[in-house]
Design a protein that fits this description.
Layout: E1 4-5, H1 8-24, E2 48-49, E3 52-56, E4 61-62, E5 75-81, E6 88-89, E7 103-110, E8 113-124, E9 127-135, E10 142-144, E11 150-157, E12 160-164, H2 167-174, H3 209-214, E13 218-219, H4 237-250, H5 269-274, H6 276-283, H7 312-318, H8 336-358
Parallel strand pairs: 6-13
Antiparallel strand pairs: 1-11, 2-3, 4-5, 5-7, 7-8, 8-9, 9-10, 11-12
Length: 364
């Protein structure tokens, strides 16, 4: 991968000065809106040992969702901190309620260099703060990015640059009140999908449902959580992997919460687990307002099993025009592995199902 930084040292110096100046004008420890002050540097967020720069504190636990979010090919590492003596309310498997004080961190690296680390911090019962930290050139620490983000910090392909998101972009993806997206029952299930697109191997220290239950960090969880672990129960391995990818990358917006009104069925974790094949079939031939290039006016559908490449689903995943790309935020590159896997799924699974359903019944 080609990697090019754009004057990041100077940018970080300006960010550091701006952060220090803004902080000096506010009540110590509190923002103007009453929320806790965001630390000026990543090293001050509690991620690392105080006297050992870069060494993650033992109480901050690594994890890896089985269906990762596509982020322009970034190598990511993730950690969670749960305050001592607290537990996660897991009574809703797809929407866990975390204790106040919980923190998440996600580190993004491109070309072997750390570029940014994002943090979610639960500061009240229904309030999360989001922050992004931009790494310095010598990779010793990262500085709090401004609320508007930082554009074009690293080139990830010729002419394409990764940007550190604004806090408004964070809120657009994470919703209200800013919930975590990749730490839930399905994502941490021990019944891990071997065909998950961009699936990451688990290391021995990573949290799973098993470790959370064994350590008493979940309450209200269904008693069958481990005997019958969460799984997308689809009729084929391709459908399972495809819906897992769509749930992780699209279900945050395309769900029943009312956050988006597009003509697409809910792709939330709970819905794809409750009826995977029904969700898959509901995409086939479903009319969409998006006009696929080359398709007659008004004839575009979400999934066209006769011509997978002309499916609106794939057309919008391929596009990186702001008016048409999906997901709409967070990427400047299409996901070639996912596009190939989903095209194969449409061609080999959904096309077969569509043909079978259209066939006349056998004679009596």
């Amino acid at each position: 991968m080609r990697l090019a930084l754009r004057g990041i040292a100077g940018t970080l110096a300006l960010l550091s000065l701006a952060t220090a100046d803004a902080t000096s004008r506010r009540t110590p420890g509190l923002r103007a809106d009453g929320d806790p002050e965001l630390p000026a540097r990543l090293s001050e967020t509690g991620l690392y040992e105080p006297e050992r720069p870069g060494v993650v504190r033992a109480e901050n636990r690594a994890f890896s969702p089985q269906y990762p979010l596509w982020s322009d090919g970034a190598l990511k590492r993730r950690w969670i901190h749960l305050p001592p003596g607290t537990r996660i309310d897991a009574s809703r498997p797809d929407d866990w309620d975390f204790p106040v004080g919980t923190r998440f961190w996600k580190q993004f690296s491109f070309g072997g260099r750390k570029v940014e680390t994002r943090m979610l911090w639960k500061v009240a019962k229904a309030r999360w703060l989001a922050a992004s930290y931009a790494w310095n050139d010598d990779q010793t620490d990262a500085v709090l990015a401004p609320e508007a983000g930082v554009r074009g910090v690293v080139e990830v392909a010729p002419g394409r640059r990764h940007s550190i998101p604004s806090r408004a972009d964070c809120a657009a993806c994470h919703g209200t009140p800013g919930r975590p997206l990749g730490f839930a029952a399905l994502q941490l299930s021990p019944d891990r999908d071997p065909n998950a697109i961009h699936g990451e191997p688990l290391s021995s220290e990573m949290l799973t449902l098993e470790t959370l239950l064994r350590e008493g960090r979940l309450e209200g969880a269904p008693p069958t959580l481990l005997s019958d672990p969460p799984r997308i129960r689809a009729s084929s391995p391709r459908t399972r992997a495809a819906l897992g990818y769509l749930a992780a990358n699209c279900g945050g917006c395309h769900n029943k919460s009312g956050e988006i009104s597009a003509n697409v069925p809910s792709l939330a974790y709970a819905d794809v687990m409750a009826g995977a094949d029904a969700v898959a079939e509901s995409l086939v031939g479903r009319a969409t307002r998006f006009q696929v290039p080359g398709v007659p006016e008004g004839a575009s559908v979400v999934v066209d099993p006769r011509a997978p490449a002309q499916s609106a689903l794939l057309a919008r995943m391929r596009s990186r025009r702001p008016s048409s790309q999906m997901p709409p935020l967070g990427t400047v590159l299409g996901d070639p592995q996912a596009l190939e896997a989903l095209a194969e799924w449409i061609d080999k699974d959904l096309a077969h199902q569509a043909t079978a359903s259209a066939a006349p019944p056998p004679p009596n």
